[in-house]
Specification:
Arc Repressor Mutant, subunit A; 16% strand; Rossmann fold; two-stranded antiparallel ribbon; 9 strands; 2 domains; alpha/beta; 7-stranded mixed beta sheet; homodimer
């Protein structure tokens, strides 16, 4: 028998969790102490019953007639998201996108520490991006081991992505945040989250095209 | 009565369209002329019946016993995605993320032309990123009108995002590609596609945490 918190959570719920975390974080910053599912509902543009259902996956958190304690719920969702643990990251590909991500994400995310970057371009070796040093690929396995790296960010050309992903998997990486414009094939124990920027822009283009046709 | 290509397409299908386009583009580059839904299925890790269903939304394209003509299907999906039309883009916020996006996306996407960037930071005015000039916000409305801008990319702090989105909507922009870490409230005729990088990283963290708990 599995405990309640171990049952299978649907991808749609997982998609919404970071959004709950974000809204609760803003409410907390604004000094809001409690919120009803109705208020959260109108704020987030999700039905109140959806919110109750989603949170019931993790055991509820709400009190009938009181609503949710903002700080507590924010903290608990943070734990569900694994934010009570530290993650160590490396960036594979220190080109423009890799550099921007380091600079953009580095100070914004508690729990996620950028430890180093790797690039095949020798002119970048030894340089720093933010505070992050760029290393040659030869150092990869040793670096992953010594620095307890669990997440690799892939910001390299799609032609190099699959081979790099396999090497990272063999080196014991736990998860890949993939910005390369290709779907990776990795062992089941390596978790992948894709950010396909081109696909996202094409979806926007589809929406424009489809809106113009229908209106 | 609405013609077949005008019926409502589900968001899940729209999510998959850019991926079909991407795989067909690679096949085309590789010189593949035709492909069965079974072959495409194993390549894309989607069931063959899913592929047939998805494409039937747009009238099919396949021939029984032949499969799909790769170049034709690539072209047709491109049209469905609105790639037979040119889109003119501006970037709101020429900081590190904005600059990286301009440099990263500029040469990769036929049909999407970056025309200019805007920033409140006066030290950036007149400078260029790639070939793209940075302008002061005062020029925004005139620039949108004169350059037939239909898409604005939002790469600015979340505190400025909502006000900027409203100004863009009033200036007649059609769509917003939003990288700010906030959900925008805009009129229904302004289409929004979000890239919430923090949310994506939190999803990856959730997956790691949940995998470790279950294994």
């Amino acid at each position: 028998m599995r405990a309640m918190d171990e049952r299978e959570i649907s991808p749609a719920v997982i998609d919404r969790l970071p959004r709950y975390f974000r809204y609760l974080g803003v409410l907390k910053e604004d000094g809001v102490e409690k919120i009803s599912s109705q208020e959260l509902s109108s704020l987030m543009n999700v039905t109140a019953s959806q919110i109750r259902q989603d949170l019931n996956n993790f055991g509820g958190f709400g009190q009938q007639g009181y609503g949710y304690n903002v700080e507590y719920l924010h903290e608990e969702i943070g734990k569900i998201l694994g934010l009570d643990k530290q993650h160590n990251l490396i960036v594979m590909g220190a080109g423009k996108l890799g550099q921007a991500l380091i600079n953009y994400m580095m100070y914004r995310n508690r729990g996620f520490l950028f430890k180093g970057a790797f690039d095949t371009d020798a002119s970048l070796w030894g340089r720093t991006v933010g505070d992050i040093r760029v290393f040659p690929p030869e150092k990869l396995e040793e670096f992953i081991r010594d620095n307890h790296i669990d997440i690799a960010v892939l910001t390299l050309p799609k032609t190099e992505a699959q081979a790099t992903a396999e090497r990272l998997a063999a080196a014991g990486i736990r998860a890949i945040w993939n910005f390369a414009h290709v779907d990776l094939k990795v062992p089941g124990n390596v978790l992948v989250e894709n950010v396909h920027l081109q696909d996202s822009l094409l979806k926007l283009s589809y929406k424009i095209h489809s809106y113009e046709r229908d209106n």
